[in-house]
Design goal:
Elements (H helix, E strand, L loop, with lengths): L1 H7 L7 H14 L1 H8 L9 E5 L5 H9 L4 E6 L2 H10 L1 H5 L3 E5 L12 E7 L8 H11 E11 L6 H9 L8 H10 L4 E6 L6 E6 L1
Parallel strand pairs: 1-2, 1-4, 2-3, 4-5
Antiparallel strand pairs: 5-7, 6-7
Helix pairs in contact: 7-9
Length: about 210
């Protein structure tokens, strides 16, 4: 149980050997969820996008493919994740279309009002205070910019609630809790989408 607990706890901030193992599964393990989330984005043409809590870098790459004119900044708290995401996106980094950096979403060192789109896949479970972190996201978005959150858990499914007890610092949030925090952080429009057969949710907020 101790080894399993340590392994699953790597979802919060991958470190060391177990962190490398966890990162090796993230890109493929979250792909279907992320692709479902992407279908809820409106018809926009962002010039600058940020993927927050980028993990292994797959979703930043998908943003680059979806929006060929966009520059994508990928941010993660874990140095290992930054290293993995840089390798995954090295061609686009070399082309000047992508930057991967270490950062803390509760104190984002990104230019204010400069991004058209921000995304967060399978990561807000570990953000230290939703309203504070969402306010940081709002700060870096342009007026009219979008913030998309995509989670495997709607905050009520039994499996995810079990993991909440195993993984240190994890908190599953309901769509209602996320919407309330987004509006308190300054987002004007919030829409929630639930998967038809899974406890997945996508929350789309407009500044």
């Amino acid at each position: 149980m101790g080894i399993l607990k340590n392994f699953f706890s790597q979802t919060r901030k991958p470190e060391g050997f177990l962190g490398k193992m966890m990162l090796s599964t993230m890109n493929s393990g979250h792909a279907k969820l992320a692709d479902w989330g992407f279908t809820h984005l409106p018809s926009i043409n962002p010039l600058k996008a940020a993927d927050l809590g980028c993990g292994g870098g797959r979703n930043a790459a998908e943003l680059l493919k979806k929006y060929p004119q966009a520059h994508v900044t990928a941010v993660d708290y874990s140095d290992l994740s930054v290293e993995k995401a840089k390798k995954y996106n090295r061609a686009m980094i070399s082309a000047g279309r992508c930057e991967v950096m270490q950062g803390d979403v509760s104190d984002l060192h990104l230019p204010a009002a400069s991004f058209d789109l921000a995304t967060a896949f399978e990561t807000i479970y570990f953000w230290p205070g939703l309203e504070k972190c969402f306010a940081e996201v709002a700060k870096v978005l342009k007026p009219g910019g979008y913030f998309m959150i995509c989670n495997e858990s709607d905050g009520t499914d039994p499996t995810s609630l079990k993991f909440e007890k195993i993984i240190d610092g994890m908190k599953n949030h309901t769509a209602e809790e996320i919407e309330k925090a987004l509006k308190a952080a300054g987002f004007s429009e919030v829409r929630c989408y639930h998967h038809s057969s899974k406890p997945w949710i996508t929350v789309l907020a407009k500044k």
